[in-house]
Amino acid sequence: MTKVNPYAAGARGLCPHCGEGYLFDGFLKVAPRCEACGFELGKHETGDGAATFVILIAGAICAFGALFSMFAWNWPVWVSLVVWLPAVVAISLGLMRPAKGLMVAAQIAQKASEAGRDHV
Q: Is Nucleus one of the keywords (predicted)?
């Protein structure tokens, strides 16, 4: 069996353990277990970590684009809104699954677990 790169598999939405089964059960819900290898995926939850990175990336791209288009081409505000609001939604939705897959893959690759009451 070949060694699977967990980060590449997670970014593609596949199981970071085997690289064959699906990581998600829906758009962003992590599947309880991999249907190919049986690895328990449900205990690896990232919370809002991926959303934070996606908001920062999409916001930087679209804020720079909006400012550049307003100053370089002298767009009116309504044209900027028509162009950049759908762009920020599309970029955010496009990056969310790969970002969450990478976060789950990082937890699995680093063998991370949640700290319980006894660990703090």
A: no
